[in-house]
Amino acid sequence: MIRRRRHSRIGLVLGGGAARGWAHIGAIRALHDAGIKPDVVCGTSIGALVGAVYANGDLDWLEEWVAKLTWQTVVRLLDLRFSGGLLGGRKVIQLFADKFNGRSIAQLNMPFAAVATELDTGRESWLQDGSVVDAVRASIAIPGIFTPVLHEGVWLVDGGLSNPVPVSLARGMRADCVIAVDLNNDILNGRDFGGAAVDTPAVDPAAISATTPPVALRRNGKPFPSWLQPGDGRVSEDVRVPPAPSARVPSMLSSVAQSIDIMQVRISRSRLAGEPADILIQPRLGGMGIFDFHSAAPAIEEGRAAVEHMLPAIRARLGMD
């Protein structure tokens, strides 16, 4: 049941973050379960893809599809290129093109927009009309990974270069209350890149047992999966221990992935400081890499947990009974 609310137009902003974007599915589910249905949705990169699927009414299909992804199926979706980027993106986008069935953005079930970046000028581009597939394909064009997209005579690349969490776009779509999902807050495994971690309590090192590492809990009280526990060097909800440095030279993909992470953190923090959301959802995804598309279940669960943690603030902001 959709409850009464004070605000007339709720905007849902889905940030970029590659594979970590599966957390958006859980976040949307949790909002709906709480009786909160956004009026407009916009996104950057993977957030644009999930947002478009949601606006098309196909979230059930997407959740079922990502749940079946394995590393082998992800590899089979890759189409290697030697110009413009490592991947052409044709196989991936064709899968979603079949679901959109040629629809334009105007034909979706709710207002939707995506963010891309002009390669020549660096300006952000708001894609609010035309083909859904073309808009999503441009928004996910991570430089060096996916080939750029030519749109109306301009080469477009990933929107994360200019606006990873596009609160300003939701405002431009006349949303008077913006709920934003930022996937980048916790992705650098506890390293400090210019700001303290949000909502992370101080920990006395003497209280941490050297033989029995603590069990990290999600914000809803449920434990993280083993691969996100602090025992294997991953970040946790309660203990933030940076991994030990390695003498090995990072691989090309590892260097690209970490560089993208640093860029996303820097830009996200800067844009959100100047253009804050009314409600900011920040899932704990520090142990998940940008290419871990086969690890959807824990990401979805963490997206849900992050929204559940913020529900009192969301209800208060919306004036829900």
From TrEMBL:
Q: Native species of this protein?
A: Paraburkholderia ginsengiterrae
Indicate yes or no for the key word Ubl conjugation: no
Give the location of motif GXSXG in residue numbers: 43-47
Q: What is the lineage of its organism?
A: Bacteria, Pseudomonadati, Pseudomonadota, Betaproteobacteria, Burkholderiales
Keyword field: Hydrolase, Lipid degradation, Lipid metabolism
Q: Where is the catalytic site?
A: 45, 158
- What is the protein name for this chain? Patatin
Instruction: Set out the biological process GO terms recorded for this chain's protein.
Output: lipid catabolic process
**GO terms assigned for molecular function:** hydrolase activity
Gene3D superfamilies cross-referenced by the UniProt entry: Cytosolic phospholipase A2 catalytic domain (3.40.1090.10)
